[in-house]
Amino acid sequence: MMKGVLIGALAGVAVAACLAPAFAGESAVQTGATFYFDYFASLSDADSSEAERGFRVRRSYLTVKKSWDDLMFRFTTDVDTKYGTDNLNVFVKYAYLQWKGLIPGATVLIGQHSPGTNAWTEKRWGLRSVSMAMSDERKWTHSAVLGVGAKGECGESGLSYAVSINNGNGYKSPLARDGQGFAGRIAWAGNSGLIVSGMASSNNPGDADDANLYFEGSGGFTQGTASCLVQYGRFEDGPSGVVATGISAFARVGAGDLGQLFARIDIVDEDTDTASDGETVLTGGFDIELSPGFHLQPNVRVVNHEDGNEDSETEARLTFFAGI
What we know:
Elements: H1 2-23, E1 30-42, E2 53-68, E3 71-80, E4 89-100, E5 106-113, H2 119-125, H3 134-137, E6 145-153, E7 159-166, E8 180-189, E9 194-204, E10 212-223, E11 226-236, E12 243-254, E13 260-269, E14 278-291, E15 294-305, E16 313-323
Antiparallel strand pairs: 1-2, 1-16, 2-3, 3-4, 4-5, 5-6, 6-7, 7-8, 8-9, 9-10, 10-11, 11-12, 12-13, 13-14, 14-15, 15-16
């Protein structure tokens, strides 16, 4: 599988190199990469067959972009470890044409794009390398979908929006018969640093009578190096009718030479009709920028289960993050 990863990465670079002369003109082809991996160690006493310590790659993105006039094409690969062989697997995450000016004041996305469900929250959180947004980690929404979308701002009012009509399944799942999905977000950012947002998504990959529904409301504040956000999410599984809810709150603040101090708490109830099935996830640590684009992020993650029969899980991690 590692061989496949290397072949995929080399193929992407080769394609970029071949396309560069063909599209040379107003702008050259841009390439970039983002990766993060951990050294982790379990501090729990729980008996498990899983690895208790070691290095692990969690994400590696290779991106190629080409812009000309009002158009931009983006192609991004994603390396993940949670699907297929449980080893490193390569997926196409983004492959879309971005068109500005087709709709006045808006940017149209055509292809496999972000529906804006998780990206808005992760931009405020700023630490996806440490933990994904609650809705993404719980798979209540999709981070990339195939379809058409639009995003933009409403003049100087501080309002922004994102909408998407798509197949109703994520980029790691095959297209199913009659799949359909929708996502919409509206947000407002004031001059004082106040931010609020609401979003909703409906996803039916085509194998159920009822769609999976997710609703979210967020509010927070950002000013200089300090920011905080509280969000509430409600997810209803279409086929089963099971309702899950969650509250996620996080804060970041400057800590001098140590960079930024961050803390987060997620309180999730996976089934509101069932008692003692919830869990609380605590995450905290530092984000230290060693050099431009390269960060060291020591952090600790603790999972407490509402069911007293399950022991808490504590993991210490040293996360390496780089953006090239």
